[in-house]
Amino acid sequence: PKEAPQPLKEEYLLTSPLEYTNEPYAIAKIAGLKMCESFNIQYGTNFISVMPTNLYGPHDNFDLEKSHVLPALIRKMHLAKCLQENNWSGIQRDLRRRSLDKVNGKSTVDDFVSTLNQFGIFGNHLELWGTGKPIREFLWSDDLADACVYIMENVNFRNLIQDMTEIKDSHINIGTGEEVSIKELSALVAEIVGYKGKIKFNPLMPDGTMRKLLDVSKLRSLGWHHIIELKKGIELMYKWYVEDQRIHEA
């Protein structure tokens, strides 16, 4: 919900209007959640729905026009580092693995530079949208898988609803309960990638929702806690990103 308090508890679902830009996507997810809940009530099944926070990990979408914030930052920092170091073979390797429509095998150095500039990647700085103030939460993809297996093996729908006067909001939030600003995240990615240029935020561009954090107290009371901390996860993700390019070239 757009106006729900933060951190978001499970019971805040549908307590205020949905964020307009995400409404169709949100409605589809909520319909699936409610269907599982209704099947459990009517037919005695044991479906348990989960609501994960922002995920990241290997095989993420690194498309500069469509990717989410963390894979986008990793790729932009990597390309900015290559550009700053005049590492043209590194730039070409990256673009051969994940092409951009505006450049190809016949493109000149000027073509590469012009294309990177359009995505805010310059020789001496990297430009990112917004103020850097929005706050987000991130969960390593393997941790989500681990949480789902844990819930399947240890949690029963009947136990989840035993204290409810109305059976609703039986889903379980999955996250870390830890938040980071986009500015802090950018600095962390730069440190891990080894990008030493300046990071500039463009306040004329939109920030998006200012804070997104899940309340994971229900999940923790059930006995599960995330394993991979954000810094370690980004290190693993960047290592995979570089290795994936090497394997693709072989």
What does this entry look like structurally?
The chain has 250 residues and is mainly alpha-helical. The protein has a single domain (10-249), classed as Rossmann fold (3-Layer(aba) Sandwich), CATH 3.40.50.720. The chain has helices at 23-43, 69-84, 88-97, 109-118, 141-154, 157-161, 182-193, 217-221, 230-249, and strands at residues 50-52, 54-56, 125-129, 135-136, 138-140, 172-174, 180-181, 198-202. It has a two-stranded parallel sheet with strand order 1-6. Strands 2-5 form a two-stranded parallel sheet. Strands 3-8 form a two-stranded parallel ribbon. Helix 2 (69-84) crosses helix 7 (182-193). The longest helix has 21 residues, at 23-43. The radius of gyration is 21 Å and the shape is elongated. The model has no long low-confidence stretch (mean pLDDT 95).
Which short descriptors sum up this protein?
250 residues; mainly alpha; two-stranded parallel ribbon; 10% strand; elongated
Write the layout of secondary structure elements.
Layout: H1 23-43, E1 50-52, E2 54-56, H2 69-84, H3 88-97, H4 109-118, E3 125-129, E4 135-136, E5 138-140, H5 141-154, H6 157-161, E6 172-174, E7 180-181, H7 182-193, E8 198-202, H8 217-221, H9 230-249
